[in-house]
Amino acid sequence: MMDYKVKLEMFEGPLDLLIHLIHKNEVDIFDIPITTITDQYLEYLELMKSLEMSIAGDFLVMASTLIHIKSRMLLPGRNEGDEEDDPRLEITRPLLEYMQLKEMAKELSKRKILGRDVFTRGDTTSFEEYPDLLPTPEVTLFQLIDAFRRVVASGEGPGNLKVSLEKWSVKDKIERLIALLREKPDIFFEDIFTTRQDISELVVTFLALLELVHMGLIKVYQPSQKSRIRLTACFEETDPVVYGMNDGK
What we know:
Blueprint (H helix, E strand, L loop, with lengths): L5 E2 L6 H12 L8 H17 L2 E2 L2 H17 L15 H27 L25 H16 L13 H14 L2 E3 L10 H16 L3 E4 L8 E4 L6 H8 L2
Parallel strand pairs: 1-2
Antiparallel strand pairs: 3-5, 4-5
């Protein structure tokens, strides 16, 4: 087994996973189907473990909280009409606060983008000429995991993802992805996988992508909710990882 783990907390936290599940199931945050969400949350944790992701304690604490709330919801004699006695408030309140903070951060980010504009009054330069200044819809780690599951299901069937990673190196796959994006700087998510790859190689390719995203060398975006996820190269030839590849030629 290779000595490599993606640290989940570098990308997302447990509240992000809950928000993802709420959106995915299209449910009301004030009326969360706790059994469904808990089961799916635990399923994601198992999947992430099988993908060699290092899961922080916060995720396990949230799992325990969800299981506890689920058990309280099933208690006989609970007054379902009493909103203040609703066990789900234990997660609803922090979720709402977190979503508000994320929205504020997004607005601040937009202002920073506007602050970078150096166009003078009367300047006819448009944002279309500077696409890097345009905010693009964010793709979360959990959306990437869902997309990866679809790739696996399309070629391998939806079976068990418990695999040995000994055959493949994340470092080698990072180099392959950089080479691929050198040739074509903007590609679809599915383009980094091939039909010849077995499940082990698919997993390592996915981990290499996550590492490149974390290093800021690849940008992941989705132009619209129903469109395919795209990857764009953000690296320069002088970036240490890329420069090291040049040295190895």
